[in-house]
Specification:
The protein is an alpha+beta fold and 65 residues long. Helices cover 15% and strands 42% of the residues. It has one helix at 25-34; strands spanning 2-7, 10-15, 37-44, 58-64. A hairpin with a 2-residue loop joins strand 1 and strand 2 (10-15).
Length: 65
């Protein structure tokens, strides 16, 4: 993304780039186990409901062992 920010008569340009990765719940669980955490719950991103087939994001609740 490129941003142009006005400062009076001048514009300043700044650039940003983003990347995302997707992981399965099994992978997340392995990562948490390796970090000394236990997976307590998984929720849909729009509430405290369980994951749905059409969920775009999931919220993971972990606890330190």
């Amino acid at each position: 993304m490129t941003f142009f920010e006005s400062d009076g008569d001048c514009y300043f340009r700044s650039d940003e780039s983003f990347s995302e990765r997707a992981y399965t719940t099994a992978q997340i669980k392995r990562f948490l186990d390796g970090a000394g955490l236990s997976l307590e719950a998984v929720y849909d991103d729009l509430g405290f409901n369980g994951p749905q087939e059409n969920s775009e994001r999931l919220i993971y609740v972990a606890r330190k062992i």
